[in-house]
Amino acid sequence: SGLLTRLQVSAPTVRALPSARSFSQNVPSCLWRLGRLNHVAIAVPELEKARSLYRDVLGAQVSEAVALPEHGVYTVFVELGNTKLELLHPLGEKSPIASFLQKNKTGGMHHICIEVDDIKAAMTELKKKQMRILSEEPRIGAHGKPVIFLHPKDCHGVLVELEQA
């Protein structure tokens, strides 16, 4: 009963995770598919300070601010190697970001955006599955593509944006 024997007996059992192939076999087929993470959106109380942090301190490529009046926001995109951050700042008093910042004074994560290959098919199927969509029709988002938002209460507390790839 040497040290080696005790190590072999007390070593934890490692269980293999299911392979991607076996996992995908459990996913029902549908007419649309989720794609890659497009961006994580962060509401910021001071847009220029946030731009400076990512550009000057962290060295990221940062876009100019763009006004999106139909969404009530200014947007800035921070390019990352595999996705983007979207900095959101209120445009007008009725901006959904203004109300978010009233509750979260220093800002914070607002939503995630995932690409889909067919946004209309996604809407149809999600409605059948009792998912609440926050608009009747897709709207044009910051990338010039159709987007919809799913109610956070249906997505475990996360506001999810789906964008046509």
UniProtKB/TrEMBL annotation:
Functional note: Methylmalonyl-CoA epimerase involved in propionyl-CoA metabolism.
CDD domains: MMCE
Pfam families recorded: Glyoxalase_4
A biological process term (GO) from this entry: L-methylmalonyl-CoA metabolic process
Record-annotated VOC domain positions: 36-165
UniProt keyword annotations, A-Z: Cobalt, Isomerase, Metal-binding
Catalysed conversion reaction: (R)-methylmalonyl-CoA = (S)-methylmalonyl-CoA
GO CC list: mitochondrion
EC number of this enzyme: 5.1.99.1
Molecular function, one GO term: metal ion binding
Lineage top rank: taxon: Eukaryota
Gene behind this protein: Mcee
The protein's name: Methylmalonyl-CoA epimerase, mitochondrial
Family: Belongs to the methylmalonyl-CoA epimerase family.
Enzyme class label: isomerase
Family annotation (InterPro entries): Glyas_Bleomycin-R_OHBP_Dase, MeMalonyl-CoA_epimerase, MMCE/EMCE_epimerase, VOC_core
